[in-house]
Specification:
- The complex is a heterodimer of chains A (128) and B (366).
- Chain A is an alpha+beta fold and 128 residues long.
- Chain A contains 3 helices and 5 strands; from the N terminus they run H-E-H-E-E-E-E-H.
- In chain A, helix 1 packs parallel to helix 2.
- Chain B folds into 2 domains: 220 residues, NADH:ubiquinone oxidoreductase-like, 20kDa subunit (Rossmann fold, 3-Layer(aba) Sandwich), CATH 3.40.50.700; 127 residues, Cytochrome-c3 hydrogenase, C-terminal domain (Cytochrome-c3 Hydrogenase, Chain A, domain 2), CATH 4.10.480.
- In chain B, the strands form 3 sheets. A 5-stranded parallel β-sheet of chain B has the order 2-1-3-7-9, with helices on both faces.
- Classes of the chains: A alpha+beta (128), B alpha/beta (366).
- At the A-B interface, strand 1, strand 4, strand 5 and helix 3 of A face helix 2 and helix 3 of B.
């Protein structure tokens, strides 16, 4: 991210892409995503995009392989996912157009492992 | 030793959730320039894959490549690569030594015959039968041939392994050569750079595990995802180049204004790497952002090309065709045709030969 160049119009392009993806999600249920890291956004572009999308009902802090901040924008179904790497820098940043991002759902195998672990812990307590 | 279970099972056993894996594949998709929606399929593929056995050999090198990969000590998204591989032999990192260490490598080779990935950092000494660099009573040359014989593929990590690097610089007293000159009967992927970008090392290994095949390579056998664009193409100072605004020295007004460093020797136009996008030290900066031109460290023969501070227009890289192409065309064709790739490879090798010849001539001139 190089913040000394000002707005380039990139934010407007991304907003139009999101708008189209959201229409498709509403009509067909097809999900989409935009990788922000791969785009040559200036700091001003990023601020413009974030301001335009705003924040909606849901905000989540996720701790999995480092910290992530995830929030639904003021446009339902448009989510901003910001994953941090070492030293608190942004390692990956994606806008997902989806009812709920995959990363928030509990995976069946993790649920199975949790069920086994919880049962084992309760059994252990009974023997204490 | 390699484990028999899947990566998914190993992650559960370690208490690492699928969310972590999904986050990592999202990160991988981004650095590999894959569609973001591919991350879920990648996570599913990785969860059901076996951990990839990796044997890492270090030859004539400085350990900078290993430092590059292992730089981060915090449990972060970048460290997930170590959950995907079984690093069965790595002299700098492994606890064991001597016979036990060599035994571990032998066991890994037997258990994963034809399936393990061999990573090599450092060039290979061939002078006097390779005696300039030995380990465990064997020359590096002998070890490379022996271990590569049963490998699925070889990753030449760093410019020394990929192109000979500094050990091969004139006068090359040890007869150093790149890995690809020794191993000619199986795929050799070059991940060049001095050192290479850690994401390029980890991303390439992760790609092989996820998709079960080698990534698309450029004319010098480097993964296109990381070496498809020149530094110049992705440089944030490119607009100054286009406007003809250049720093003439490192302390003039142009340098203070952050103008293009082409005239103080930047090799960005003829150097293919991802420094300008992935950057260094956790994405903090890269040489040009810090005010110094690119040295061209990911290109063959970079050390012998005449001078880091002479502009490319002085033909220090030895090939005006490349320079003209990069300067005039600007954005390089990332997905070059096979014909173009061959032409570039020939041009790059010719440039290296011409530059070496020019330096020799210069040295002989009183």
């Amino acid at each position: 991210m190089n913040g000394d160049v000002g707005r380039t119009g990139m934010a407007q392009s991304i907003l139009r892409e999101i708008s189209l993806a959201l229409s498709v999600l509403a009509a067909t249920g097809t999900r989409d995503a935009i990788d922000l890291r791969s785009l040559p956004l200036t700091l001003a572009d990023r601020e413009e995009l974030e301001a335009a999308l705003g924040r909606g009902d849901v905000g989540v802090v996720l701790e999995a392989a480092g910290k992530s901040e995830i929030w639904e924008t003021r446009f339902t179904g448009v989510w901003w996912l910001r994953h941090f790497g070492g030293d608190g820098r942004v390692a990956a940043e994606v806008i997902e157009v989806t009812p709920v991002p995959d990363i928030l759902s509990a995976h069946p195998e993790d649920i199975s492992a949790a069920a086994t672990r919880m049962a084992a812990e309760l059994e252990e307590r009974e023997h204490v | 030793m390699s484990e028999t279970g899947t990566i998914g099972e190993a992650l559960i056993a370690q208490g690492i959730s699928r969310r972590s894996l999904l986050k990592y594949t999202g990160y991988l998709a981004s650095i590999l320039a894959l569609p973001p929606m591919a991350s879920r399929a990648m996570a599913d593929a990785l969860a059901s894959a076996k951990r990839q056995s990796v044997i890492w050999l270090s030859f004539q090198e400085c350990t900078g490549c290993t430092e590059s990969l292992t730089r981060s000590f915090n449990p972060t998204i970048e460290d997930m690569i170590f959950n995907l591989i079984s690093l069965d032999y790595q002299e700098t990192l492994m606890a064991s030594a001597g016979t036990a260490a060599e035994g571990a490598m032998q066991a890994a080779r037997t258990a994963n015959k034809g399936k393990y990935v061999l990573v090599v950092d450092g060039s290979v000494s061939t002078g006097a039968g390779g005696v300039y660099s030995t380990n465990a009573g064997k020359s590096n040359l002998e070890t490379l041939k022996e271990v590569a014989a049963d490998a699925m593929a070889v990753l030449s990590v760093g410019t020394c392994a990929a192109f000979g690097g500094i050990p091969m610089a004139k006068p090359n007293p040890t007869g150093a050569v790149p890995v690809s000159e020794i191993i000619t009967d199986k795929p050799v992927i070059n991940i060049s750079g001095c050192p290479p970008i850690p994401e390029a090392i980890a991303g390439t290994v992760a790609y092989i595990i996820t998709f079960g095949k080698l990534p698309d390579l450029d004319h010098l056998n480097r993964p296109k995802a990381f070496f498809g664009d020149s530094i110049h193409d992705r440089c944030y100072r490119r607009p100054f180049y286009d406007k003809g605004q250049f720093a003439k020295s490192f302390d003039d007004e142009g340098a203070r204004n952050g103008w293009c460093l082409y005239e103080v020797g930047c090799k960005g136009p003829v150097t293919y790497n991802a420094c300008a996008t992935l950057k260094w030290n956790g994405g903090v900066s890269f040489p040009i952002q810090s005010g110094h031109g690119c040295l061209g460290c990911s290109e063959p023969g970079f050390w012998d090309r005449g001078g880091f501070y002479k502009p490319l227009s002085a033909a220090v890289m030895g090939n005006r065709e490349i320079i003209g192409g990069a300067a005039v065309a600007g954005v390089a064709a990332g997905a070059a045709s096979v014909a173009l790739a061959r032409k570039r490879r020939a041009a790059a090798l010719a440039a290296q030969a011409a530059a070496s010849a020019a330096v020799v001539t210069q040295e002989k001139t009183p």
